[in-house]
Each structure stands twice: as C-alpha cells, then as structure tokens.
C-alpha cells in the first residue's frame, strides 16, 4: 500500500525538498503552502499522515490552528510538526493540540522517514483484519489492542496514535512503574522528558473530560508513571 502524506509548509524550496525525499520512499505526497489550501483539499480527501509547519505565511500559528481542526475531525490521523520553532513552549503547545510528534527542521531525512514509518506501522493495526482480538480490561477501562481503541465507562477516549501506545504500556502491567524512556520506546518516539510529561498530561485530561474523578495514572516522582494497581 502506498500511503498518502500531506506537507503543509509555506517555504516552496523546503516543501519541494521534503516532498521529493518522501516520494523516494514510495509515498504519495501532496503539498500545500497555507492552511486554507490544505483544508480545502482535506475536505475532499484526507491523507494518511500530515506534516505541518507552525508558521504558515501570514498566520504565525496557522499550523497550530490546522492541527486543532484536524484533530477534532480525525482522532487517529497521525500529525507531525516539522518546524524551525522548537522552543519548549512551542513543543508543548503542539503536543497539547494533539500532535503525535514535534520535530525540528534540523532533523535528518533518514530520521524523519523513520518517524513516519513508525507511525504508519502502528496505523496499520487499525486497518488489518482482526483474527483474534486482544482486549485489556481494568475497572472502567477497556483497551482493544488491534483496533487501537480505548474506552472508559463505555465511552470512547479520543487518543492519538502516540497516546494510545503510552496508555497500552501502562495498562499491560498495572502497578508497574514505567519510566519516561520506557514510554518513549513503547510509543516509538524520541523526545525529551518534558515532552513525555506533556503527553501524559494530555492523556489525563482526555479521561477527566469523561470522568472528573479519574485518578488511574499515578506519577511516581523521579521514576515515571504507573496505572493504579
């Protein structure tokens, strides 16, 4: 299967370079210079993954706005920020909006394609026919592993691909502490500790939106996180 990638980047040369590099790996690539043209195209057909710059032309935070729009429509769509804006505040803002990863433009093309391939490998779990489904249950939680679906009190929790695998890592062994490094390994991302913390905070907020008393994810200071035993 040839996956479709959309690149939303306002610099023509950069946009063309990324598009050419990803096409060499066999991906179908479409590219857009601004949020408006991307949204117009996505209204007709969604790609399988989106790479977004933060600043888009006259919109200093157009990429953030686009991420917010897409995430509201498609919870599982892989979204990666690829931008020169790599301050802690920008990274945290992007992850809070639901991006699966936030990459600096200083990243090498082999590293970028490795991140893209990792997200697609996990996305294939949603599309593969399920011969025997693995389901994890714990109190009000239900995790359908092959379908990458999580529910709490029979209500779906709209997790991103990265957030799903972090929850899965915690739930497989309730009470066992998972370090930030272990959570990164499970989610196949390479980020700093603060970014993992941002992901966990966002996961908590999604559960709390369904249940104000949610307290299953415990912070073990200096060690990591665990799902309440």
Can you give a write-up of this model?
This is Two-component system OmpR family response regulator. InterPro entries: CheY-like_superfamily, OmpR/PhoB-type_DNA-bd, Response_regulator, Sig_transdc_resp-reg_C-effctor, Sig_transdc_resp-reg_receiver, WalR-like, WH-like_DNA-bd_sf. It comes from Pseudofulvimonas gallinarii. It is a single chain. By secondary structure, the chain is an alpha/beta fold. It has 2 domains: 124 residues, Rossmann fold; 93 residues, Arc Repressor Mutant, subunit A (Orthogonal Bundle), CATH 1.10.10.10. It is 44% helix and 20% strand. The protein is built from 8 helices and 11 strands. A 5-stranded parallel β-sheet has the order 2-1-3-4-5, sandwiched between helices. The termini are far apart.
At the first level of CATH, the class of the largest domain is: Alpha Beta
Distance between the termini: 41 Å
Portion in beta strands: 15-25%
> Under the CATH scheme, which architecture of the largest domain would be assigned?
3-Layer(aba) Sandwich
Helical content class: 40-55%
Question: How many beta-strand runs?
Answer: 11
Shape: globular
> Which fold does the CATH topology of the largest domain refer to?
Rossmann fold
* Gyration radius, in Å: 18 Å
CATH superfamily of the largest domain: Response regulator
How much is the average pLDDT?
A: 85
Major sheet: 5 strands, parallel
One letter per element, helices H and strands E, the order comes to: EHEHEHEHEHEEEEHHHEE
């Amino acid at each position: 299967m040839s996956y479709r990638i959309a690149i939303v980047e306002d610099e023509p040369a950069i946009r063309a370079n990324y598009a050419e590099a990803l096409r060499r790996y066999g991906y179908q690539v479409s590219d857009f210079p601004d949020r408006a043209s991307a949204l117009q195209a996505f209204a007709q057909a969604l790609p399988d993954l989106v790479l977004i710059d933060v600043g888009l032309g006259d919109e200093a935070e157009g990429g953030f706005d686009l991420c917010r729009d897409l995430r509201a429509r498609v919870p599982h769509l892989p979204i990666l920020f690829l931008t020169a804006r790599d301050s802690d505040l920008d990274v945290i803002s992007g992850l809070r909006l639901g991006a699966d990863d936030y990459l600096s433009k200083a990243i090498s093309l082999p590293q970028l394609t490795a991140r893209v391939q990792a997200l697609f490998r996990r996305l294939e779990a949603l599309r593969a026919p399920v011969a025997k489904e693995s389901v994890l249950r714990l109190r009000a939680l239900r995790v359908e592993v092959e379908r990458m679906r999580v529910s709490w009190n029979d209500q779906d929790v709209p997790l991103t691909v990265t957030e799903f695998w972090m929850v899965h890592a915690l739930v497989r062994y309730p009470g066992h502490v998972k370090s930030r490094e272990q959570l990164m390994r499970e989610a196949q991302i390479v980020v700093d500790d603060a970014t993992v913390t941002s992901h966990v905070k966002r996961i908590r907020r999604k559960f709390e939106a369904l249940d104000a008393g949610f307290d299953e994810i415990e912070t073990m200071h200096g060690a990591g996180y665990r799902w309440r035993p």
